Inverse folding.
């Protein structure tokens, strides 16, 4: 009598299944993709003070907690565009517009 136990594969980490499920459930909109990589692109301190809240035809609107953040990020616009597009793996963002909330 042969045992099937010796032929079983090792269990797969649950995280792989969760990641696969998240990818299928996540909205594929440009804004959702940008929001997903925002912190990685701009860093934790910026992400704590500013959030991408809208995207239209490549122009990303970023809502900032303070006017000083809005001014700083507006000046960094071209650099933010580059960082975001690197994280996204394609040229999705063409400009950044900042506003204070």
């Amino acid at each position: 009598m042969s045992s099937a136990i010796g032929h079983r594969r090792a269990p797969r980490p649950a995280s792989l299944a969760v990641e696969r499920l998240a990818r299928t459930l996540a909205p594929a909109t440009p804004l959702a993709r940008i929001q997903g990589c925002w912190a990685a692109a701009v860093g934790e301190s910026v992400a704590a003070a500013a959030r991408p809240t809208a995207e239209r035809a490549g122009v990303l609107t970023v809502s900032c907690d303070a006017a000083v953040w809005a001014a700083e990020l507006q000046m960094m616009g071209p650099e933010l565009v580059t960082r975001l597009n690197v994280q996204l793996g394609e040229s999705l963002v063409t400009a950044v517009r900042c506003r204070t909330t």
User: Anything to note?
Assistant: The domain at 28-100 is CATH 3.30.300 (GMP Synthetase; Chain A, domain 3). The first strand starts at residue 50 and ends at 56. The two ends are 71 Å apart (CA to CA).
